Amino acid sequence: MIEQIKGKIKVLLEEYYLKEYNLELSIAVEEPKKQGLGDISVPVFAAVKALKKPLPECVNEVVEIIKNNIKEVEMINPTGGFVNILLNKQLLSEQIIKEVVSQGSNYGNRHFGEGKTCVLDYSSPNIAKSFSIGHLRSTMIGNSLKLIHEKCGYKTVGINYLGDWGTQFGKMIVAYELWGDKDIIDKDPINELTKLYVRFTNESKLDPSLDDKARYAFRQVELGDEKYLSLWKWIREESLKESKQIYDLLNISFDSYRGEAYYNDKMDAVVAELEAKHLLKEDNGAMIVDLGEDKVPALIKRADGGSLYITRDLAAIFDRMKDYNFDLALYVVGNEQRLHFEQLKSVLTLMGYDYGNRISHVNFGLVLQNGKKMSTRTGNVVKLYDVLEQAIKIAYEAIESKNPTLENKEDIARKVGVGAVVFNDLKNHRTLDVEFDLNQMVKFEGQTGPYLQYSSVRIASIINGQTFDVNNMNKEIMLKDHYFELVKSISQFGAVVERACVERLTSIIAKYLLSLAQLFNKFYAIERINVEDEQIRNTNFALASCVRTILNEGMRLLGIEYLDRM
After folding, report:
1. CA-based torsion, 205, 210, 215, 221: positive or negative
2. Of the candidates 125, 117, 202, which has an alpha carbon nearest to the alpha carbon of residue 166?
3. Is residue 100 part of a domain?
4. Contact present, 316 and 329 (Cβ < 8 Å)
5. Domain boundary among 52, 87, 122
6. CATH code of residue 36
């Protein structure tokens, strides 16, 4: 509601300057620089500069426009070059509370994505490797952005672009042929295959000819050799079984599992089109697209005829445009792939396609352990499934000690443990590296997922079985600072969702939820909720209910399950 008032003031002033002075001005409407000056502030320096009028005259103009058009204004307090606005706390609070109670989980919905389609490429684990804690970032950032875009009106398509093609499978096949034992592997496929992969990496440092054998083996897969292809299919199938366990625990599903292999027979058409458009050049036997003097050329085909990531990604983009006619395509992929996506967009532009600007690389940092990058090649990797199971175990022990008679402890522990791991990832700015510390994640206090879940459960216990009437509230009580601060925070939810969507930052929602929970817990420490006075009781229950509604909806947008008891 406050954001809507800000928007209304902005439009009013911009329309006024256009009509009166034929002047297009972008008016800033913000929060005052200092507390106590008001709830909204309008700097008038831009108008003074553009109109070349005295500051007091411009200030008075703004004051009159706001006073005559915004009914929620209580007082206007000009200070220097700022018009500070104090809102009618009683009227505004009543409107906001009624709006949240009426709309429920739909509160905060935005509509700027309506009629548009957003495809999101995320998770995309490499098969034949353990699904590590490092894969969590793409998986959960992508899932959350999908939910956030849906809340902003987009039709979304979640694509798990499986890493099921490439030279690493040649390495795996060679390692299996040299050192593998199928009986042993069948007992624990991904663990044993990962060990083989690590061994290949170590052995190839001593014997470089192994890399040549791996390239040959994968080339045979590409050419459809029955022996090598059947090995590849078996490795892929076993990998997908492990991935499904993870997705079930995380409560995540996808609309498409078309991986890199799906595009193996679609790349020749891409190469032919590049050739027909005279974009391909030979470079030491390889085929490249020259992107200009200041850019690294895009390698389309290796000297041995093997395909490359960019060729498959071009085939995938054309396929997705044909199937979904997307308005936005988000690739949730690590920071290190920045150059790849710059090249991808440049090649599309050179090919004459105008939808390169619809593609966005949603980059993110690494998950570090003791300050070091995890790597499957070196064996320095933590399996995500093991992490989630350990987090669930820690959560169960904490619940058992605090509430041993609680029913369904196993299910609650799963939601708390998984939520803890997910929230720890999403609360951080995605471009930064994240240090992995499980014990910190699962704490019930501080900036954690369990803290948010517990705050929601606390409210549920307060309002459980209670009824309240939003048409019979005590509006005067909203003049108390701790009441109105809570209402103001509630009113910001929609703007927070919109900003998270536009900036593709889940951390915006995560930090907002922590702030809201802290405000409520501070409020709860000051005020008794269930009081005798009916109007105050109605107000308190309604306000608490609004906070829980937003905490739960915010957690849902992060891919975290909320609870009624814990």
Report:
1. negative
2. 125
3. no
4. no
5. 87
6. 3.30.1360.70
Amino acid at 524: Y
Residue where the block lists tokens 């913000």: 30
CA dihedral 169, 170, 173, 179 (to 10 degrees): -120
3-state DSSP assignment of residue 26: coil
Residues paired with residue 359 on neighbouring β-strands, in sequence order = 329
Q: What is the pTM of this model?
A: 0.90
Full domain range(s) for residue 489? 402-557
Contacts of 271 (CB under 8 A, 6+ apart): 280, 287, 300, 301, 311
Residue labelled with tokens 């959560």? 395
pLDDT of residue 374: 60
Alpha-carbon distances, residue 187 vs 193, 237, 526 (angstroms): 11, 14, 58
Task: Please state, as a whole number, how many other Cβ atoms lie within 10 Å of the Cβ of residue 184.
Answer: 11
Instruction: Tell me whether residue 141 is in a domain.
Output: no
CATH (domain of 440): 1.10.730.10
* Cα–Cα distance for residue pair 309/316, rounded to 1 Å: 10
User: Is residue 328, in this structure, part of any structural domain at all?
Assistant: no
- For 95-143, how does the pLDDT look when each residue is reduced to its tens digit (9 = 90+)? 999 999 999 999 999 999 999 999 999 999 887 777 888 889 999 999 9
**Among candidate residues 35, 53, 87, the one where a domain is terminated:** 87
Using one digit for the tens of pLDDT, what is the confidence trace for 218-244? Answer: 889 888 899 999 988 888 888 888 888
How many domains is the chain built from? Answer: 2
Q: Is residue 258 part of a domain?
A: no
**Are the beta carbons of 140 and 429 closer than 8 angstroms?**
no
Return the DSSP state at 564.
S
